[in-house]
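Possible regression after last week's pipeline update?

I re-ran a chain I had predicted before the update to compare outputs. Posting the input and the new output here so someone can diff against the archived version. Not blocking, just want to make sure nothing changed silently.
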Amino acid sequence: MLKTPELRNLSRQELQEKIAALKKSLFETRSQGAGGRIEKPSKIKEMRRDIARILTILHEIKEK
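New output (post-update):
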């Protein structure tokens, strides 16, 4: 799980790179889950929340 204060210290480019990496990882985890090979199903929920957290911070930066 990513911490919000740590994310706020990153640049816009770094946040976008993190989102891309998380989306790729989420896709891979979901495909493993479809095959029944996933160890921690809660990992999907955690990744979705991390993506939402980063998007919220990016939106806040955009409003400033």
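Follow-up from reviewer: compared with the archived run. The domain at 4-63 is CATH 1.10.287.310 (Helix Hairpins). Marking as no regression found.
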